[in-house]
Design brief:
Elements: H1 14-31, H2 39-53, H3 59-69, H4 78-88
């Protein structure tokens, strides 16, 4: 999935855009994101763009930092849902 639709008019040199694209694809794959309309897809793209704007241009670090910034909402973690169910019993 390309990152270019999420740039919203921001212009980066081609090598930086390529690095962001690689990071974005890795992050989406890692999270199982395939839908462009998923809000999480846009959140991850925005974080990668922000990090690149701040000077990070390594695809591996961009991906890792974007993923580390993402915190799943309460209730989306399988273990957490299961522990709540077991508390009720």
């Amino acid at each position: 999935m390309p990152i270019t639709p999420y740039l919203k008019g921001k212009v980066f040199p081609p090598e930086e855009t390529r690095a962001m694209g690689i990071a974005f694809e890795q992050a989406c794959r890692s999270l199982g994101l395939v839908d462009k309309s998923d809000p999480l897809t846009e959140i991850i793209a925005a974080k990668i763009i922000e990090l690149a704007h701040r000077g990070e241009h390594d695809p591996e670090r961009l991906c890792a930092r974007a993923l580390s910034a993402y915190q799943p909402p309460v209730g989306r973690l399988h273990g957490e849902e299961r522990s709540k169910e077991s508390d009720r019993k």
